[in-house]
Amino acid sequence: MKAIILAGGSGSRLHPLTLGVSKQMLPVFDKPMIYYPLSTLMLAGLRDVLLITTPRDEAAFSSLLGDGSHLGINISYSVQKEPNGLPEAFVLGANFLDGAGCTLILGDNLLAGAGVGRHLSTIMTRAGGTIFGAWMRDPRAYGVIEVDDNDRILSIAEKPERTDSHWAIPGLYVFDSRVVEFAKDLRPSKRGETEIVDLHNRYLSAGELNVEFLSRGTTWLDMGTIESLAQASDFVRTLEHRQGVVLGSPEEVAWRQGWISRDDLSRYAGSLGASSYCEYLKGLANQDPVPFELEQL
């Protein structure tokens, strides 16, 4: 299983903030937005990551994350010249995937809660596709899942005007190796883009689409608007100040996974300066790693 982070698009809902910088490089409290989806993938044990971004922003992401070796992972890059729809990520990543299954996460999604990474890692070997359901009071701004009394998927609709369902689809998806073939077969919708819901329905029509419901203790935030970006920053700030741990730190995840050593962490933290985030990493390097079961990363 390999992973793709889709960090393209123009971020028009965040203009003028994103006129000169990628949305996924904006700060969410004390770190760039891209750290949060990357940490989710790493918590699930995924170490081969393709980051898809725009021609303008590729150099900035490369400067920030490099090749991932300081995190004990492999990061490569691909350019999406125009926002032609989410499924294009699998087409652009075909050579990277090279017949492997794929976990795709959108670069503006934050998932937090004990066991999120373990939950994701347990479903990655399934055949077919897996989507997630997050309960919302009003999910109509997202893809919406309708299920029967046995939690079997009845239908999936993209931003429906009406629905009795409360299950929204977060920007996290797991597909088997056929996803590239299926994505290539999709035709653009009236919006001129291929639609992720059409890819879901391809698996659903074959009886091979699963749904996993996020537990009540799991937080999912889409950080694509001014309001939701502010909410995410407030959430991270409150949790970190209250609990004294940092949320969405790829360096900490790498260290706790055993992918980098104490010396690696200390050396990298020392190169970053004297921010509160850097001081947190330096403090970690003087501790013994705590198993993930005891952490809410």
In short:
This protein has helices at residues 35-43, 58-65, 88-92, 94-97, 116-123, 179-185, 196-205, 226-243, 250-256, 262-270, 276-284; strands spanning 2-6, 27-28, 31-32, 48-53, 74-79, 102-106, 109-112, 129-135, 143-147, 153-158, 167-168, 172-175, 209-213, 219-222. The protein is an alpha/beta fold and 297 residues long.
Helix content: 25-40%
Give Rg in angstroms.
19 Å
Largest sheet: 10 strands, mixed
- Helices and strands, in order, run as EEEHEHEHHEEHEEEEEHHEEHHHH
Top-tier CATH class = Alpha Beta
CATH topology, which one? Spore Coat Polysaccharide Biosynthesis Protein SpsA, Chain A
Taken from the alpha-carbon principal axes, the silhouette is globular
Q: What structural class do helix, strand and pairing data support?
A: alpha/beta
In total, how many beta strands? 14
Instruction: Give me the number of helical elements.
Output: 11
- The average pLDDT score comes to 92
First-to-last CA distance: 22 Å
- How much strand? 15-25%
Classified in CATH, the superfamily is: Spore Coat Polysaccharide Biosynthesis Protein SpsA, Chain A
Using brief descriptors, characterize the structure shown:
297 residues; Spore Coat Polysaccharide Biosynthesis Protein SpsA, Chain A; ten-stranded mixed sheet; two-stranded antiparallel sheet; 32% helix; disordered C terminus
Description:
This protein has one domain (2-128, 172-178, 215-294): Spore Coat Polysaccharide Biosynthesis Protein SpsA, Chain A (Alpha-Beta Complex), CATH 3.90.550.10. The chain has helices spanning 35-43, 58-65, 88-92, 94-97, 116-123, 179-185, 196-205, 226-243, 250-256, 262-270, 276-284, and strands spanning 2-6, 27-28, 31-32, 48-53, 74-79, 102-106, 109-112, 129-135, 143-147, 153-158, 167-168, 172-175, 209-213, 219-222. Residues 293-297 have low confidence and may be disordered. The longest helix is centred in the last third of the chain and has 18 residues, at 226-243. Strand 4 (48-53), helix 2 and strand 5 form a beta-alpha-beta unit. With 297 residues, the protein is an alpha/beta fold. Helices cover 32% and strands 21% of the residues. It has 11 helices and 14 strands. The strands form 3 sheets. Strands 1, 4, 5, 6, 8, 9, 10, 11, 12 and 13 form a 10-stranded mixed β-sheet that branches.
